[in-house]
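Cross-posting from the chemistry board since nobody answered there.

I work mostly on the small-molecule side, so proteins are not my area. We synthesized zinc ion and want a rough idea of how it might sit in this target. Sequence and SMILES are below. Is it possible to get a predicted 3D structure of the two together?
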Amino acid sequence: MIGYLMRNVFYKKQTFELTRISLVEYGFSVNRPFEAKLKLYHWKDVRSIRFSDNYNEVIVEYLGRQIILRNSNIGWYEFIQNVPSTFENFDFKYVAEFIDSLKPCGVCGIVTVREQTCIVCETIAWNDEIHKDKVAYLTSKQSEFYAELVKDGKEIKKIVEPEHGFKADSNWKLYL
Ligand SMILES: [Zn+2]
């Protein structure tokens, strides 16, 4: 099972069923599934922006309405890193600590491992309890993830690039 971010990052597939948040010059846009129009929001009209209690959502007070942005929305992690510093109630410290706490993923190469699981490819990070041989584990996981590209005769990039506001690990290695 390949997660939505993985599909989006590695296969550039259309993911119509997913809400997508993008940063634009004066604010952000939200493209929800089955809505014909992209909605644009200006920072100047945002009254407040804060995390939900479990930090899985951001609640935006906008022109008398509430907009909920979830961490399952594409672009969410990039969004939370780009909230203007003028929103004093926003928990910038949490964002900084969260991004700082992430570790590189040996499988996809993006720095997105949180609590032993990669946010992007959803692999469990290697440890000697799940497999005694690190390279064998990474090789088998990588071949699972890239099977579709290999089948289609597409080239797999040997160097990983930053995606969705996450850093890339320059020491990442493709074992295929
Ligand atoms: Zn990964």
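Reply from a structural biologist on the board:
Welcome over. Reading the output above for you: Residues 134-151 form the longest helix (18 residues). The chain has two domains: 15-96, 102-176. Happy to explain the token format if needed.
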